[in-house]
Recover the amino acids of this structure.
């Protein structure tokens, strides 16, 4: 028979870390801690499988599950020496969700369950603390009503505020037992009024209501959104953890907090955390009271009281436990603890979230400490998050200027590194709306799961309340968004649409604000983002600032990645500048050099237009002769930057009309410059107009109808390579023909181009040669790759076009339905961001199989934007590609992803 | 060792009909006739393989071939008792091309080869006819110089005309030996002048020059064009037939002619042909003298002298021989013969070309005669040519009117059935140019292979000279073009651009002319084309004119096809009218009913536009409610027409912007009618604008973003089906969802549509149900057909879109390069006309395999235009499709093609 309930703690520990999928992260780690003899309040876990059963049986809990849970509850009563619902010594429970992966803030929690009008008296007696007992009861009613009975917590909070106002008391801590008692009475009335039912007094009814609520919360819109954002499967389900309560709010010898075994912001090996005396866990996370630092080091200079100072013994015990946990789990831990009358209890441990920079530092340190291997380190870093290292920062001088102008508004917690500037949005809806027009910074008192869509839309997040572990901080770091938290000087008036700080008033929807998530600074006005430190090091040259710690760590990861990966990583670059950046980032060649970009600059566009207007071959040749020396010097520059590395040059791809002006003024100007009539220009524009330019006269189709264009380009390549050679530069060009659909296009063009190369060689008495290959970007090319491979010396997948044609999605137009497709789950992801493995991936697989079947060892790469997407890169690795090529700034990501792919079992 | 030369005739007959690919049609049939003891002038054939060798060796004949030919020549001299180049008894030769398939007029022929200044005297002596000898010599010089030495024949013809003028003689027959002799001298001077070399006197040089010229002619542009038009492979090559001459021009007891064993125009079983007394074969084909009829029956009422009358014995021998040949080859024969001094020789026999109607009649008669099987008959008819039966004819009343007006200009030979009207073009170039603007009739004195492009461009062809076997007649019939030949009353002045006949003068490029290729009538002015007889029978109703002979034959073929085929044939039809036509033609259902066409008519477009302008769901529902009754009545009409047969209805497919006016006037009108502002209309037009509408927001993507549209359509289908049932009509709708790329689109929409059907059933207490399937027209759908088949109850390939996306060709734009692609042989065919089997066919094959793998027995059809293309239909049969669907007028073609596919071994 399937087991549905697993106990943990005390003398009966049935689970462990290996049962993560079944017990969820929380449940399995509680059992694991108990097995290490770490103090954990005992309890039991109802498995994730029950979540599926619950929905399968029409939202009903199977009898067998109920029976097992009742048995576990009986054991728990015995273990704690308390009775569930018993008036004298009541057992109180917490009920919490727990999926296999931590989803902060997404799932609902109920504490103090088991309290009712009778047991509250027992708690009062047992604790000797009436204030604590009635505070616990009112907290329970608030949480339970909100989560299980759908009575919004704000109704209760309004009463609390009302009471404070009436009594002239400011803080919760100023309230006494009688205050809480009277509130409990009011709260029960609210529940009766809102639901038409009394607040449940039967503890069993409370328990099953809470369990059901946990399962229900699995499918709330916000949970579904979070899963989609994080690509978690809907059928994982959540477990339910039922745990006996320990109390951090029984008095001044109690407390609760969260801690990280290393600094999640910087990665420094320093114990780090926050706590509150006489509080329950929710107080820390919700940010309603500003937490205190755990260590003396953290508290230094703040005037705050650290746990290390206040409870030195408990602190020592906590530190030892934390270190044991990190060693045991071999990764940085994020732990929750409660201190009940001086005794420490661990409520949770999990792998801690961290910034990209912290992630790198931690992984490297752990390798150096012998805790993990280099491979472990590479596997642990989220490749995509490397882009955070390259995210913009503000220019120090510009910041200094604003500071002198008095525009430094305040300083909050540096909760999410990176810099952002944008107009102020005071809620998620406004952020989403405004983001269409330009950058936005979401400014909130605090954030909640309802704000996720707005956080996605915003460039950065700024909150007035909450610490480093508040919802805003945790979620922003996960998203790689700059975030400043707890900037308590901010006075936010959402209704009036104003943010006041000091004497300055900013208008939402209008005024700009700039935040530096690495320093916590908040500025009025608009700062311009600049490349990050790593980025600067790389852009300015390979040797500059080599002693930057950040750069050295980054370089170490890159070196390990380079050693571990099998695939080459190249870059898409069209200029010497981009080529240098790419090379500095570790690119092993250029996988896509688009020649058309070279046609737009300055004088050239005139020659291009002259060519397009020419009525005959002679006229086109005349104009192309002007382009030849420019194109040749473009290539020389790129060859110099990539000296010794391959450069794949794609011949002209876009339709000719892209080079002509669309507006009458531009056309008139063009007519004037080229000494022709406006009518002639208009006529040509009209002739070249296409209904579906994506599927029109472009790519090799141009090469076939106007071979002289491709001949000019190949001549420029050959001459540039030969000239480079004279200057001691090793040019390694590869000639790539775009948009091939049938092998005969390639046959035809190869003959033309080889003839042109032969002419150059003849003129110069030289021996230039270059491999000629093809883009695979038309579905038909993939389907007939065996035929094409007979002529092509290499393949390069153009997965952008392959996706457009394979799906029949125009990238320019799909905006009208793609977001709805993702929202309705018709597509898991935007296929232009992550390769659609099932469909477009099948074309890739087929083409690789057919291509190598016809030409064993055929070199195959990819040069679409998917070449810089980690999940796509892993697919390309599995499919046997030789290289991926992506934009220079994604080269590090592709390198790491390629290494991770090679390290996959 | 490979044999390169095969002798035929006399005592050494090395070939036969089975060696067609090696010896060509002419060569193998000459050998076959010789083996039947039919009198054939002996000779030898140089094989088609030598053609390839010739080109492979840089246009050189291998020594081995030369040696073999010399040995065969020696044998031939012995067989004829003559000597090649011998002064006394000279052996003269004809040298003719001969590919495996007859290519009339495409290849060059040289007669009387071996004549020179010495042997002409021997011929004079041997024949006792100096006029004949010198006439033969001047013919030889003309032909040889034209074909081998590149001296245009017109130079010689001008001299001949000059001589006639000078001497006051009108006809060639008026010229005597001395005249020809003097011309020979002049001709030799012309050759010397034009080429700088004397006319070759060495017979061996003449022979090898002619052989090379035959091989060279294989690759003249006109030959290449003809092959492309007829889809013949370039590597087949041509054989060379070297045959001893017999002479039809030695006197009044000589003659030459061509004959068909049945009438090639009507198919009637009647011996049929034309001849000329005292002439060489070229005289008949070139149309320079109007030929005489062969049979008394043909001559009846013409006052002409038939061969049957003039040479009754020879005629009888010819008739017997012809009948033997038809029985032997089991098909209608087209034969060439020469009578030398009363003796009959067969120069060639081949399967005769025929009109579509004749082809059907011949095949049916031959089945009735027990000559061939029904299967043979079906295999023999070119399916595409059935469209000729449906080609337009003129309305008899309209013709009568023109006749009364005196606009019947003249009557020529009814050389190519069908009717055509157009402006007059006097040369091919003008025809091509004018055809862009409207229909054209090409009017020529006679046509030659140079005119092919103009003939393709013209609606019909009219010539002043030439018989039923002239170039114009043969080629026009092959193309299915209406043609009237030998309308000798026409006086054509190409230079002045005028056609005069009787007192009427017509201007080229301006005036209209109408020709009836079935009657030979030529009218001044513009007659309107009407559906053909078969067509009328069918359109007016299935029973009308059932006794029409033509219709009965057509129906018999259709009945055999229906019995022989495996695949169903359905039609693409959107109206009750089209549905009736399709059903009358034998369609077994509607494979594609496009619902969008119904949205354009009258009032409806207003409701459609109202829906598009609506800002919300309510507004759209309001407009859709107006469309519902109209859409329902559309379906009722179609269900009634197709009573009992399946009707596959495709839900809305095109992007919404197609329903909005593009011009400001239309937009203003729309704003007025819908009581909104012009700005609102413009804004919506702008919103809906797409860069690549082909790949945009259309098909099921509309259904997913606006489910209410598809719901309305499915409701209309369900209600119409139920209403039809009440009226005793069996509606069999199938619901087809367009542009599906992933199974989840189908999952989503099926749920919506099944819900709507459930509502209808609930409202009406009914049990309506219909299968729901999908178009396979997006490459990704084909690649993931296994997934899609889980939801789809049928597949229907949209091969138009599959071709557009698979190739990345926009049909609207490909005109700028596709013609060049076909010309440069990068594509064999326009892939929108004939399915690209290698690439797009691979997608079809994959989808069938995957689809049936997931859902055994899945019904699969095709509803693109390829469903009416015979070669594509055969591929669909081989690939296991259940049905093809095409336009109503191509249903007969598809039925026959489906039968032919089933009959393929």
């Amino acid at each position: 028979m399937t087991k549905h309930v697993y106990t943990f703690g005390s003398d009966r520990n049935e689970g462990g870390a290996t049962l993560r999928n079944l017990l969820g992260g929380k449940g399995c780690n509680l059992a694991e801690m108990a097995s290490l003899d770490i103090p954990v309040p005992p309890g039991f876990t109802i498995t994730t499988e029950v979540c599926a059963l619950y929905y399968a049986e029409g939202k009903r809990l199977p009898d067998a599950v109920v029976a097992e849970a009742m048995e576990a509850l009986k054991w728990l009563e015995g273990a704690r020496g308390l009775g569930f619902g018993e008036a004298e010594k009541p057992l109180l429970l917490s009920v919490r969700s727990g999926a296999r992966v931590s989803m902060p803030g997404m799932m609902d929690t109920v504490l103090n369950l088991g309290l009712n009008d009778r047991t509250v008296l027992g708690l009062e007696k047992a604790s000797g603390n009436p204030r604590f007992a009635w505070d616990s009861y009112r907290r329970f009613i608030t949480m339970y009503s909100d989560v299980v009975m759908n009575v919004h917590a704000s109704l209760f909070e309004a009463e609390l505020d009302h009471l404070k106002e009436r009594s002239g008391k400011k803080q919760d801590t100023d309230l006494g037992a009688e205050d809480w008692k009277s509130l409990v009475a009011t709260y029960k009335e609210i529940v009766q009024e809102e639901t038409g039912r009394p607040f449940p007094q039967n503890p069993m009814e409370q328990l099953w209501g809470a369990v059901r609520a946990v399962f229900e919360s699995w499918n709330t819109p916000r949970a579904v959104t979070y899963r989609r954002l994080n690509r978690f499967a809907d059928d994982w389900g959540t477990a339910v953890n039922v745990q006996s309560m320990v109390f951090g709010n029984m008095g001044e010898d109690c407390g609760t907090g969260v801690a990280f075994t290393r600094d999640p912001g910087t990665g420094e090996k320093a114990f780090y955390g926050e706590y509150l005396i006489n509080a329950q866990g929710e107080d820390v996370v919700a940010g309603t009271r500003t937490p205190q630092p755990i260590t003396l080091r953290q508290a230094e200079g703040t005037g705050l009281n650290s746990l290390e100072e206040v409870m030195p013994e408990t602190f020592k015990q906590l530190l030892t436990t934390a270190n044991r946990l990190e060693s045991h789990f071999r990764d940085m831990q994020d732990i929750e603890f409660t201190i009940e009358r001086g005794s420490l209890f661990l409520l949770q441990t999990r792998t801690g979230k961290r910034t990209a920079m912290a992630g790198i530092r931690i992984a490297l340190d752990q390798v150096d400490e012998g805790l993990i291997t280099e491979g472990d380190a590479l596997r642990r870093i989220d490749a995509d998050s490397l882009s955070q290292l390259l995210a913009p920062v503000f220019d120090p001088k510009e910041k200094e200027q604003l500071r002198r102008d008095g525009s430094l508004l305040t300083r909050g917690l540096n909760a999410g590194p990176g810099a952002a500037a944008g107009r102020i949005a005071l809620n998620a809806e406004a952020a989403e709306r405004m983001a269409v027009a330009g950058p936005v910074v979401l400014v909130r008192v605090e954030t909640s799961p309802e704000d996720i869509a707005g956080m996605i839309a915003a460039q950065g997040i700024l909150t007035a309340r909450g610490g480093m572990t508040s919802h805003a901080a945790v979620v922003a770091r996960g998203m790689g968004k700059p975030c400043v938290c707890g900037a308590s000087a901010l006075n936010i008036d959402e209704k009036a649409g104003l943010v006041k700080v000091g004497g300055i008033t900013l208008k939402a929807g209008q005024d700009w604000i700039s935040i530096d998530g690495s320093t916590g600074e908040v500025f009025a006005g608009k700062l311009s983002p600049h490349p990050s430190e790593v980025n600067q090091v790389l852009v300015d040259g390979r040797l500059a600032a080599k002693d930057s710690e950040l750069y050295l760590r980054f370089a170490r990861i890159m070196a390990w990645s380079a050693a571990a990966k099998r695939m080459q990583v190249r870059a898409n670059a069209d200029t010497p500048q981009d080529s240098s950046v790419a090379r500095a980032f570790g690119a092993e060649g250029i996988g896509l050099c688009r020649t058309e970009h070279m046609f737009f600059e300055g004088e050239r566009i005139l020659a291009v237009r002259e060519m397009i207007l020419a009525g005959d071959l002679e006229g086109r040749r005349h104009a192309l002769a002007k382009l030849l020396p420019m194109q040749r010097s473009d290539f020389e520059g790129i060859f110099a930057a990539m000296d010794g590395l391959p450069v794949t040059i794609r011949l002209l791809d876009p339709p000719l009309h892209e080079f002509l002006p669309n507006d009458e003024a531009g056309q008139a100007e063009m007519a004037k410059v080229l000494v022709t009539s406006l009518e002639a220009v208009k006529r040509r524009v009209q002739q070249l107009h296409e209904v579906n330019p994506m599927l029109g006269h472009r790519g090799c189709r141009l090469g076939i109808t106007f071979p002289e264009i491709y001949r000019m380009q190949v001549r420029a390549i050959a001459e540039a390579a030969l000239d480079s050679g004279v200057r001691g530069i090793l040019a390694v060009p590869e000639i790539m023909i775009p948009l091939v659909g049938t092998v005969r296009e390639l046959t035809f063009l190869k003959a033309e181009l080889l003839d042109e190369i032969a002419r150059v060689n003849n003129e110069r008495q030289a021996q230039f040669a270059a491999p000629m290959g093809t883009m695979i970007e038309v579905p038909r090319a993939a389907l007939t790759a065996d035929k094409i491979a007979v002529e092509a010396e290499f393949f390069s997948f153009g997965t952008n076009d392959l996706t457009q044609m394979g799906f029949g999605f125009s990238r320019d137009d799909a905006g009208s339905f793609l977001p709805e497709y993702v929202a309705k789950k018709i597509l898991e992801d935007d296929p232009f961001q992550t390769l659609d493995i099932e469909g477009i991936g099948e074309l890739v697989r087929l083409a690789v199989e057919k291509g190598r079947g016809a030409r064993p060892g055929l070199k195959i790469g990819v040069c679409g934007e998917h070449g810089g997407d980690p999940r796509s890169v892993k697919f390309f690795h599995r499919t046997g590609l030789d290289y991926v090529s992506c934009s220079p700034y994604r080269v590090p990501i592709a390198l790491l992803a390629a290494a991770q792919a090679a390290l996959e079992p």
